[in-house]
Specification:
Number of helices: 9
Largest sheet: none
Strand content: under 5%
Shape: elongated
Number of strands: 0
Distance between the termini: 58 Å
Order of helices and strands: HHHHHHHHH
């Protein structure tokens, strides 16, 4: 009986914590929607331009190198792997088509989002978590200053603006990586490679990838801010929250990618 009581108590505790997390997440999303969209209509100053500009530089400009490096490597490896199979069917010229479609529809948005989740999402969580531990956020609330316009809105809006831009860059750099491998390594004629690369692309390939990147930016921003604002304890709590933020962001990105890929396949064939 004692073991059954402890077991039921543990289940009740976990259930209570789960719904408490849902409530805190809902409150964060509500605050973001209000201060991001409704407050400006009501004449309230919500988005601090200097904070927003700082996030744009941090998310975009300082992520250029790693996004380019990863995208070029992915494009090059994809070209090599595609050529390995296509050569057996005498279809080596279609290497460029495979690289371009794969980068725009799938790999560009997903790889860029994972890189940004590991770099920017972790940084946001650690920064907000440190402020939480040092009671800086509690001080703002005590003075009657809402934390969302200063801490949440600039970061999420920065991700929403810069992640699609970085995704477009990933498209281009990934195709360049595939082009270099195809022309230099596989000895495909440059004109033929470029013709195959761009003839296979349609507008749907571009906008589906950008739509995914927009959703991924919201996922990264909300999870990073939530984990940072939910930190408990000292430095250990910040470390746990940062790790959990990256893990949850990557899992959510992959799951969302699968859902949206299915939607685009069946609803927008």
């Amino acid at each position: 009986m004692v073991h059954l009581s402890s077991f039921l108590g543990a289940i009740g505790k976990q259930t209570h914590e789960f719904f408490a997390q849902i409530a805190r997440l809902s409150e964060l999303i509500r605050s973001f929607l209000y201060w991001g969209f409704l407050a400006p209509i009501e004449g309230k100053k919500s988005l601090r331009r200097e904070l927003f500009a700082k996030q744009l530089v941090f998310i975009g400009n300082e992520s250029l190198f790693i996004v380019c490096l990863v995208s070029a490597s992915v494009g090059a490896v994809l070209a090599l792997q595609a050529a390995y199979q296509l050569r057996q069917f005498g279809a080596l010229l279609y290497t460029g088509s495979l690289v371009s479609v794969s980068m725009t529809r799938e790999l560009g948005p997903v790889i860029t989002a994972i890189v940004i989740a590991g770099r920017v999402g972790a940084s946001i969580t650690a920064e907000l978590g440190t402020m939480k531990v040092q009671e800086e956020i509690d001080a703002l609330i005590t003075m009657g200053i809402p934390a969302a316009p200063f801490l949440v809105v600039p970061r999420i809006f920065g991700l929403v603006v810069m992640l699609p831009c970085l995704t477009i860059l990933s498209y281009a750099v990934g195709m360049i990586g595939g082009y270099l491998v195809g022309v230099v390594g596989l000895h495909i004629n440059s004109d033929l490679y470029l013709h195959g690369n761009f003839s296979a692309l349609v507008p749907k390939d571009m906008w589906t990838g950008l739509a995914k990147s927009f959703v991924f930016s919201l996922i990264i921003g909300v999870i990073a801010c939530y984990e940072g604002l939910s930190v408990k304890g000292g430095a250990d709590g910040v470390g746990r929250a940062t790790t959990q933020s990256v893990v949850l962001s990557i899992i959510s990105i992959i799951v969302a990618d699968g859902i949206f890929t299915a939607i685009f396949y069946y609803v927008f064939p």
